[in-house]
Amino acid sequence: MPTKQIRLRRIQSLAHDIMVEMNSKEGHKKNESYRTVIDHLSRAIGELSDPSGDYSLDYVEEKVGTAHYKIFKNMKKLTPLRKTKESTM
Known about the structure:
The protein has helices at about 5-25, 30-50, 55-70, 80-89.
């Protein structure tokens, strides 16, 4: 599988984790960190929705990774993203 597809699948997995967590905890919706999570995710979606199809996968990874970290405080899941990025350079 090409590297771009692997990176997109990892981003999708992180976004799914975030969605499940945010929908499972009613009390967290007013939390300030959740507002920043939403901000990061909306920026990533904005980047991906560029009509020209010209988007930065690095930027999307960064925004989704930051959002995931703000909820789970777990760098372990983000490590594969960094390894993939480093191996493509």
